[in-house]
Specification:
Helix content: 55-70%
Number of domains: 3
Largest sheet: 4 strands, mixed
Structural class: mainly alpha
Shape: globular
Amino acid sequence: MPATHVYIDAVSRRSSGRPDANIREDLIHADRGKTLHEKKCGQNWGTAKKLFEEKKISAAEMRSIGAYRKALVDSILHRLRAQHKNLEFMAVGSTNPTSDYDITIGGAGDTDAMKEFHTIFRSNFPAESGLVFDTNLYVANYLPAREYFTASSLQYAIDQKTFTVAEENVADSARKTGPKDIPDEDCLVFDGITLGNLTSLDQTLGALAWECQDEFALTKLRKYHTGEDWRTYRSTLDAELDQQADKEELRQRLDNANRLVLAYARTVLAKIGVTGVPDTDLENRLEQEENARENTVFAARNDLYAQYADQARRNLRNVWKMPRESETDKQELRGPYRAAMEDLTLSLMFALEAYHSGSAIKDVVVNQQGNKNLPLTRGEYRDSLNDQFGDLLKDLHHYGGDLEGDRKALIQSSKYLKRFCFAGTQLQARTECPLDPSDPTKPLERRLNQFTTLTTKGDYPNGTKLLAIREPTPEFAEFNQSRRNQAAVDEYQKATDEVIYTLTRFKRFVLDLNLRLNHNSRSSTCKKKPLTVSRLMIDSSR
């Protein structure tokens, strides 16, 4: 179906029941956006954002392009929902037209629908949806189904309705192979069988689940912290730990995170026809291929995401069916369970702009964006902290490089800095080890407070305008990029005691916080502090 018909069909459906004049207005709005997107932006969302930042596209024009994007994507989802009656689609996050428009699919057949979406999109556009529209599709692997699909703050895809069909399907369709009742706070990993169900089989398997989540979060940190920086990070954190058992546990988890990152790079390269690359060159070669053949790599990652998500679910079903009566049976679950969970996190690594750990998904997507209150342990907040730090490093690497780029990196990374500070504060509240054991002026505690203020919306001293600059709000919408960059630096200097902003020092401050918070949650000499959250007493042993 030609793209023109696709988007007109979407606007018509979305406007059903509204006066004819309003329907025509929507059509005109989307049509204007379509023309701009094709003629001025070359059907590339990155170009559209760049032109908007350079004031070559007005705010009204950017809203029209955003309206076209939503109409086009929603129309494809309409077609998929007609073919998959039990599926629902939803978007979560900012409604700002410069932000992404990502879709999560819920219900049986979700990966099939994701594959069909890519097939339809590729027949209409010259590149993947992530490049054309900054739209990526996800399946609800780690998300608690009922909580996620009924979150009140969600921006619904297609039209606004209750998601009872999806809830019933996710919770009930596959319970033939699982338990009869799934608590709302359980983490759904496939069909109706949850991570909680699997790990409740045996205490050692439960411990393995926490271990895996730690490693999976570390893959994000490792992916964007390479070479000498990674070796320095490892040795510094290792040296901070006093107990040999803590050191050995950390080394094993860092080794496994490194192994998974190399497996990710090797698999993507093989998918695009590049083989025989030594482990030491895998990441550099993949970066070269991304720069030279961005769309080819994006397409490969989208296909691998669906493939590995399916593979992980099949393997987890097999784990569920394995005998578990004897101690030998329970020990034999460990290998298949770890392999299945590694496939699951590899699928998230293949996904574009996804968290690598279930802990970060629960912390950010469910609790912060979905306004829920799922209880998280100290270790889960550490997982989220490391996931956020990895994404922050990604933005610093992507945008930094010269004076203006370094300043823009501060703006772009502020979203992850805010989430990093939240996870760090929650983690620290669950331990009795201080951030600054030697005290004098408590520099780390002060820095965490300063960065929290920096990423709180408001006026100093209660907050700053950094996140408003990132959106941007109307106050900053007419600023060119250079003025936004300077405004961000001004806010940074207000919130911190830094006279001059440099990306190197900013990165160093966040790294120091990450190292200390990781130490405090990993050292067996740190006392644990249980907290009462919601209706549950949190086990802070992680």
